[in-house]
Design goal:
By secondary structure, the protein is mainly alpha-helical. Helices cover 82% and strands 1% of the residues. The protein has helices at 2-32, 37-62, 66-91, 102-118, 126-145, 149-163, 166-170, 175-180, 185-193, 199-242, 246-258, 260-271, 275-300, 307-329, 337-357, and strands at 123-124, 303-304. Strands 1-2 form a two-stranded antiparallel ribbon.
Amino acid sequence: MLLQVLIFIGALGVLVKSTDILVKAVERIAQWYGVSQWVIGLTVVAIGTSIPELGTSIAAAVRGAPEIAVGTIIGSNITNIGLILGLASMIFIFPLKRGVYGRDIIILGCITTLFLILASDKIVSRGEGLVLVFLFVIYIYYRITKEPEHVQKKRNNLIKKLMKNEKKVHSMINCERLIQNGLDYRTLIRLKKQGINKYRACQQQVLGMIAKNGIIVIIGVLGIALGAKFMVSAAINIAKGVQVPSEMISLSAIAIGTSLPELAVTFVSARKKLGGLLVGNLVGSNIANILLVGGIGALITPLTMTRFDLWFGLPIALIMTLLFFRFTKMQWFSRVMEGMLLLCLYILFIIGIAIFFF
């Protein structure tokens, strides 16, 4: 039993570290192509931090243990809002732009409701899984192609400023300096139309940066695959050893473990007052968990639901999402009480797990 616990911890460590290096690599590539902080949080970082859940779900489905996949999805979404966001709001104060986040949180609420409806017959079929994946592709396309107005305004102001000082642009021959000064690919294309062409000067550096980070992405994916495989195997063996349902472990221990990347991104973003990245990451991660993780898991093997999932887990996740939306409308993140409420709901969820499975 001790060996299985050590394997579980070690595999979880590999999973989290691999996700960390993968997210950083993909984020750098996305920044160069002009993807905003908010969109990076909703898409690139969100998908990256959901990869542990995806790896766990695939490994569990392949092993014929769909209950682990379901527990990981529900548990991770509740952990992201209840535990991680609850703690962050109690510790840090960071700004949010009014009106930027509401639409995506509403989308998350609709997706959570849809998943609850699909699961109402106690199973999410392969056909329903295909629908979830299709909706995820549509959402990502919508988010990448539709840039927020405040981001467009920021880029336009930067271009006007640089047009008044062409010497500053021409002095930036280093790709890193270009990115640091906000001169991403989209901005450089706009400048080129104005007669300032700096893209060709740093093209070789850009290609080298993309190739380097592409290799890191491949290493990260391999690490995630291995970590997920051994973690699921260890979780099943531990559950058998202590004679508890494997879903109980997935709802708690695995859910917390696979949410560590979200925890890291949240606390770093909060400390740097990057509210857009923080909220975008958590909202996007929860959307990815349901549509991508749940969809792919169901495609491999239909996901079976327990009474706990239908009558307690998913409703708690939906309630937390609605509270999340309400709090952002109230200029949240400058208060402590809202965070305490989310944390209390998370504690209630953990107590519910203990009562139901024991």
